[in-house]
Give the backbone structure.
Amino acid sequence: MNEEVRAFNDQQSPSEKEVCDKLASIINSQMPEAENKIWHRHPVWFLEGNPIVGYSKLKAGIRLMFWSGASFDEPGLKPGTGKFKDASHLYSEANQVDPQELERWISKSKTIQWDYKNIYKRKGELVRLEVS
């Protein structure tokens, strides 16, 4: 695990740290090719410079977010608001993390991607990437 991400996880309460560690472990095992770092103060995994998945701390728990998750057609992911294609899931305890569900979402995240990497160049317009 990236040392910055480990430090982020270690700063959480014991139950939140357990959620973060479980999420990071599963994401890392399913996306060994991804770059992992702290981005905008939260752990994020990138494929070819495009943000794919990350998590952050909210008052209600740990929010797992997929940047292109609204396009996954998954009932367990709540679409964000606005023009972006993000979707998320909130966890308050580690036992709520379903590894099979998370692995399915990660699998979809590798092939269903919107180009967030170049969103500024396109002045806010999102374009679907062709990913094999």
In short: Strands lie at 35-39, 42-47, 50-58, 61-66, 78-79, 87-91.
